[in-house]
Each structure stands twice: as C-alpha cells, then as structure tokens.
Amino acid sequence: MAKIIVSILVGLFIVFQIYTTMASEKTSTQAYKVIRTEKDFEIRFYPVVTMATITSTAKTYKELGSLGFRKLAGYIFGGNSSKQKIAMTAPVHMDINDSASSMSFVMPSEYHKDNLPKPNDSGVKIETSTAEYVAVVKFGGFASGEKIKKYTELLDELLKKNNLPHYGNFRFLGYNPPYQLFGRRNEIIVTLKWNSK
User: Fold this and answer.
1) Which residue, of 53, 64, 114, 130, has the greatest Cβ tally within 10 A?
2) Domain limits of the chain?
3) What is the pLDDT of residue 53?
4) What is the 3-class SS of the chain, one letter each residue?
C-alpha cells in the first residue's frame, strides 16, 4: 500500500513539473534581437519596454528576491488603482549591488506608462527602459548568490578577452517560477558600448 501511495505521489509530482515547464514556455518573454552568437556568450539588442520596478537596500539575491517579488506580484495581481490583473512575463530583472538594488517585472507589450494602473504600493514605480545592446551568458538550475557571482565573473572575463567594452552593473535575469525544478533558464547581462553600424 505504501509503495502505491509513493508511486501516485511521484506520478503527480512529475505531471505537475511537466505542466509547470509547459506553462513557463508559454509565458510571454521580453522581445530582443540576437546580434551575434559566440561560443560562450551572446550579444542582443533590447528595444524599449515598460517595467514595474522596486528599489531596495538588499545586497543579496535571496533578500532582494523575497522582498521584490512580493511587492511586484502584489501589483500585477490586482494591487493597483483599477484592481486589474496584469499577465506575468519573463524574465524578472534583478540588479544586485552594494548601493541600491532593484527588481523589475517587464509589462506585457500592450502596456505603457500612460495605460497602466497606478500601483497601490508607493514603492512600486512604473518606468520605461532604455534601448540597449547587451552581452549575455546563460546558466541552468536554481540561481544563487554564488552562481550569480560566478557567471558575472565569467561574462566579465569573456568581454575582456574579446575586447568588448561594457558599462553599468551586471544584472541577473530569471525566467522560471521557484517551484519549477527542470528546464530552468537564468542569464547574466551587461550593457555594451556597441556600435550598431
């Protein structure tokens, strides 16, 4: 009997993970254009988007993720002047540093600053990003402060090796919900001094 129960639970878990992975793949993803693909990294162009952003004194991935997700999810799940639900998109942007960290949700493409409802939480700001060329390195599994540091250093080394100047902070992009165990996608990006010509 115990074996049957365990088998049923394992089966349900596998079905849930398959469903989660499929749902994650259907989530609207921030648009970008791949400019160049290298062996270990990629160069992309990101057009302007609208984002809901919080800033924080958090200095770690775990601390910023917990606080930021709660506030931003509150906004898109109806914590706004219209009690309007806004679709979740990917990725979640995180800029973790020692001065002022930030976390952002990209708004679906049909939204801009003028047609989004006002957040109930004054800590949530609606902002328009700047179009940019970025270098990107990808990694799988669950993100952590250690992994983010490791891949940030890797991307920095790759850019130096390829004589590609960059500026601003290295940022983390996370694509999956925390309960998705398989097929996870994470990225580190940084803005390039890129001549589009």
Assistant:
1) 64
2) 2-192
3) 97
4) CHHHHHHHHHHHHHHHHHHHHHHHHHCCECCCEEEEECCCCEEEEECCCEEEEEEECCCCHHHHHHHHHHHHHHHHECCECCCCECCCCECEEEECCCCCEEEEEECCCCCCCCCCCCECCCCCEEEECCCEEEEEEEECCCCCHHHHHHHHHHHHHHHHHCCCCEEEEEEEEECCCCCCCCCCCEEEEEEECCCCC
Residue type, 26: K
pLDDT digits (tens, 9 = 90+) for 89-147: 999 999 999 888 999 999 999 999 999 999 999 999 999 999 999 999 999 999 999 99
Under CATH, which number does the domain 2-192 receive?
3.20.80.10
